[in-house]
Amino acid sequence: MSKQTKKSLVRNAAILSFGALFCRVLGALYRIPLYRLINAEGIGLYATGYSIYAMLFAISATGIPVAISKLVSEETSKNRMGEVKRIFSLATILITTIGFVVTIALIITAPLIAKLNGDPRVVYPLVAIAPAIFLVALMASIRGFFQGLQIMWPTAISQIVEQVVRIIAVLLLAWYTIKLNSSIEITAASATFGSTIGSLFGLIVIVVIYFVYKSKINKRIKGNPKTSKLSNKQLIKRILAYAIPITLGAMIIPVMNGIDTILVKNRLISIGYTIKDATKMYGNLSGGAMPLVNLPSTIANGLAASLVPAISIANLHGRKKEVKAKSELAIKLILIVGLPAAAGLSLLSKPISMMLYKNIAPGILLELAAFAVVFLTLQQACTGILQGLGHTKIPVINLTIGAIIKLVLNYFLIAIPAINIKGAAISTIIAYGVASILNFRSVTKMVGLKIKWKDMIIRPLLATALMTLVTSFSYNYVSSLGISNLIATLLSVGLGVGFFGIGVILTKCFTESELNMIPYVGNTIIAIASKLKLLRKE
């Protein structure tokens, strides 16, 4: 592999990672103002509709775009641009047909799905979001085509436009329907329809970019019009041979989440809660506590993902020591984000909930669910490492095991009146705990990684302990002065983050060589630690 190819690989991965990270952060944050607009019941209906959509999207539109990308890349390398055109045309017809059929099927079966959910009002959000499946399917096809040609920025741009427009539309439609004094189900459906609007704008952007590029692509096709000898039927079989295994892997968690959504509310109803109360409780968990749990994992995953291309290249060239060093660093980065995030969210769960939602109920669940952050971030980091090593099936299997455990635990725990909705939080912690341990075990075996307790656990825990003490003292002290919860919480969070950073430097969590591998902030930490004579060489 040439230096130019390596640079191209890293650059392309960075473009896609940035777009995905930006969208994930926005996706975690927008539910805060949405919760304040439509409250727990509305967010419960919204989240239910969205989880069913995510399940059907995974089934209909995840595998084929990856197959397009892979096959287009292969045929481009062989200079068979005529075959590239055939692959894109046939795959686009295939995925849009599937997307259209699934969209119509969702609209028709929405009343049945709502009945299974125990809440007939869910039909409105389901119908509102159904067209997004068709729109996203077509958009994903074009994204896959560009990625196969190693042109990554159109995907990133369309993702960002889709997400920004979606969030604006969701919030504006929710606000407008509230102003009209609409029912909660219509308000939730209007907010859900914002996803359809976002998908439409994302599609428009990628289609415009495609037509801008079309003349260049057509020139390449005319210059290299070669095709394979495969018939259209054989080529479709080739596309599906790549797409089906990817779809099966991608659909596991969304399908489990879709089932989980139905299960949680039905188990709450089984112990005497009304549909309205069950929806509120589900909304407090899925729309209140979980977005805050997912936010640190999004940031941590972005940090770890920046190392995955380097791990992939090092593994390709058989540089085992480099693979081991970068894998250790990725896991350490994850723990250094995950441990303080879990401690901080749990410690300030109720003040944060009051500050963001004006409701303590999500905070009660967050106090427990926050501990899932450590396992969720570790599971994602190990998944990235395993993917970088070329082992894509292992994390899927491990996550499936965790998801099955979650469903079983939800069934039993939620039905215990004293536990109720907290059972879903407990099962989430255990499920990600199992998946992360299995993933970590696989990583240790494959790269020869050993647990360095002092380095990977004790040093970050000491820094976390310092942060916890400062955060707890500052919040209690400032609150005792009669200062508002908003100021007390923000001040405590700021001091906690600052003192955690001091703790990381004081405990010498990173060596100089590790800091050199961390993009953007590594050199700054080296400079500070050197001045304080706290830089650890090895």
How would you explain this protein's 3D organization?
The protein is mainly alpha-helical. The protein contains 20 helices and no strands. The two termini are 31 Å apart.
How is this fold's topology laid out?
Layout lengths: L2 H27 L1 H31 L1 H15 L3 H36 L6 H26 L4 H27 L4 H40 L8 H39 L4 H31 L2 H9 L3 H28 L1 H9 L3 H9 L2 H17 L4 H21 L8 H26 L5 H28 L4 H22 L5 H6 L4 H10 L7
Short recap of the structure:
The chain has helices spanning 3-29, 31-61, 63-77, 81-116, 123-148, 153-179, 184-223, 232-270, 275-305, 308-316, 320-347, 349-357, 361-369, 372-388, 393-413, 422-447, 453-480, 485-506, 512-517, 522-531. By secondary structure, it is mainly alpha-helical.
Tell me the total number of β-strands.
0
* Classification by helices and strands: mainly alpha
User: Could you tell me how far the N terminus lies from the C terminus, measured between alpha carbons in angstroms?
Assistant: 31 Å
Mean pLDDT: 86
The tally of structural domains comes to 2
Shape: globular
What's the total helix number? Answer: 20
What fraction strand?
under 5%
- Major beta-sheet overview: none
Rounded to the nearest angstrom, the radius of gyration is 24 Å
Order of helices and strands: HHHHHHHHHHHHHHHHHHHH
Low-pLDDT segments: none
- The helix content, as a percent range, equals over 70%
